[in-house]
Design a protein that fits this description.
By secondary structure, the chain is of the alpha+beta class. The chain has a single domain, classed as 2-Layer Sandwich (60s Ribosomal Protein L30, Chain: A). It contains 3 helices and 6 strands. Strands 3-6-4-5 form a 4-stranded mixed sheet. Helix 1 packs parallel to helix 2 and helix 2 crosses helix 3. The longest helix is centred in the last third of the chain and has 19 residues. The N terminus is likely disordered.
Length: 199
C-alpha cells in the first residue's frame, strides 16, 4: 500500500534559498526590476503581503487529488479557488507577454527573461488598478514549446510566487500554443478580484 505524503506547507513570505542563479543578464535585470534581488544579486524580501479583502480559499479533495506542491517536482498552483465576490470588481488581464513600452518583443530566445518580463508587465497592470498578485485567482499560461520550457517556467513561477508569499496559490492551467508573434515564448492571462472601491 503506498504511503501518503503529508501535505507540504504553503509558500511563505520568507526569501527562499536560491536554487539556481539567473541564466542570463536579462533574467537578472528583470528580477531586479521586480525587486526580488539587489543590484549585486542578493535575494530581497517581498513587501509584507496584505490580507486580500475578498475572502477566498484553496479548494482541496485530498482523498482523490494530491496538491501540486506535493509533486516530486512541485508546481505552483491551487487545484481550484473558491471566492465570494459581493461588492467586488473582476480584473480580466488579457494575454500578456515580454513586450516593452513600444510594443516590441524583449529578450529574443531567452525564455526565462521573457517570463520575468511578463510577470513584471502583469505586476504593473495590477498596480494600475490598485491590485497585486495577491488578488489573482486564476492564470492561464501559454508556452510555445511546453516540453522544452515547462521546467524553467515552473522554476521561475515557483520562485516568484514563493517570494511574494502567495497563499493560496492561483488556480492555473499550462497550455502549449502558437502565440501571436513567432518570437514570443510565453504569454499569461490572469483574473483578479478586488473590492469595487479600490483604486
Amino acid at each position: 500500500m503506498p504511503v501518503r505524503k503529508k501535505p507540504a506547507a504553503a509558500p511563505s513570505a520568507k526569501v527562499p534559498p536560491r536554487t539556481k542563479e539567473p541564466r542570463s543578464a536579462a533574467e537578472r535585470a528583470e528580477m531586479m526590476k521586480l525587486g526580488m534581488v539587489s543590484a549585486r544579486g542578493a535575494p530581497r524580501r517581498a513587501d509584507r503581503p496584505r490580507k486580500p479583502i475578498v475572502a477566498r480559499r484553496a479548494m482541496r479533495a485530498t482523498s482523490i487529488l494530491n496538491e501540486a506542491f506535493d509533486y516530486e517536482r512541485p508546481s505552483s498552483f491551487a487545484r481550484g479557488i473558491r471566492y465570494e465576490p459581493a461588492g467586488t470588481a473582476t480584473l480580466l488581464i488579457s494575454g500578456t507577454a515580454s513586450i516593452d513600452e513600444q510594443g516590441l518583443t524583449e529578450y529574443l530566445g531567452d525564455f526565462r527573461a521573457q517570463l520575468w518580463r511578463t510577470f513584471r508587465n502583469i505586476t504593473e497592470l495590477l498596480a494600475a488598478e490598485g491590485a497585486t498578485w495577491h488578488d489573482i485567482v486564476r492564470t492561464s499560461c501559454y508556452l510555445r514549446d511546453i516540453e522544452r520550457d515547462y521546467r524553467d517556467f515552473n522554476e521561475v513561477r515557483t520562485e516568484f510566487f514563493t517570494w511574494l508569499g502567495l497563499d493560496p496559490l492561483p488556480a492555473s492551467t499550462g497550455i502549449q500554443a502558437r502565440l501571436c508573434r513567432e518570437d514570443l515564448l510565453i504569454e499569461i492571462e490572469a483574473i483578479a478580484v478586488v473590492p469595487c472601491d479600490r483604486k
